[in-house]
Amino acid sequence: MTRAPNSLRLLMALAVVFAMVPMSKADTISLGLQQGSSITTVDTTTTGSLVYSGTFGTFTLNMITAEGSPFINEPNFQTTSVNTSSSAGGTLDVWMTQSDLTAPIPENELLSGFTTNAFQGAVTSVTENTYLDASNAIFGTGTLLGTATFNAQGSTYVQSSPLSVGSGPYSETVEYVIDMAGSGTANSTINVSTVPEPSSLLLLGTGITGVAGMLRRKLKATA
Fold it and tell me: Which has the closest alpha carbon to 148: 129, 174, 161, 172?
């Protein structure tokens, strides 16, 4: 029986490893702002990246950013910065939804990372929430994944229970509730990511180990 050349076996091993990484596609990211009972949609994008600045009610949105598919594989959603300030105080809800997700997560759990990076002036509190909606709705409907309330700088992580969204499409939403008693600035972050299954980690580790071994043998053969 003729064995495949080392170079071919190396390519085959790499193909197996990279085949485990799902292909990305463009999903819709929506930004909504709320002071009072209704939410106003102020921006949407299907490019995978959202950047927004402006004013809303008594607040100035210095910079709001979000990143999703195709830059990172769904259902990961990185709202890397929500930087707001106010001279008059009040409560502002910032909603961001990544919708049209189709990558199934029937048994996976989601990890919500909550952080306040800056807490200056008369900031009373910042509450951060994450949601998953099997009906693909936007802005806060569906299952609450995790929540955290901050009265100073800090960070925490919340891991959800196993979830099922059927065949999709579905959506995930992050919410920032920023409460100020007067002039202040708050900068916060929410990141949503999948928790890899143990079997996937084992398969990935096996593939990487195999590739490393083949590279060592190839180097020895050419030495």
Answer: 129
Q: Is 129 helix (H, G, I), strand (E, B) or coil?
A: strand
Instruction: Give me the residue label for tokens 């085949």.
Output: 19
pLDDT over 80 (residue 37): yes
Nearest-angstrom CA–CA distance, 50 and 65: 5
Digit-coded pLDDT (tens) for 44-65: 999 999 999 999 999 999 999 9
Cα separation, 182 vs 168, whole angstroms: 43
Rounded to a whole number of angstroms, the distance between the first and last alpha carbons of the chain is 27
* 222, amino acid identity: T
Separation of alpha carbons 26 and 45, rounded Å: 9
pLDDT tens sequence across 178-205: 999 999 999 999 999 988 755 443 444 4
Q: What is the pLDDT of residues 18-33, one digit of tens each?
A: 344 445 578 999 999 9
Nearest of 40, 33, 78, 37 to residue 176 by alpha carbon: 33
Q: What is the dihedral of CA 207, 211, 212, 218, to 10 degrees?
A: 160
Helices 6-19 and 198-222, interaxial angle, to 10°? 160
Judged against a pLDDT cut of 80, whether residue 85 lies above it is answered with yes
Q: Which amino acid is at 39?
A: I
- Domains of the chain and any CATH numbers: 27-205 (2.60.120)
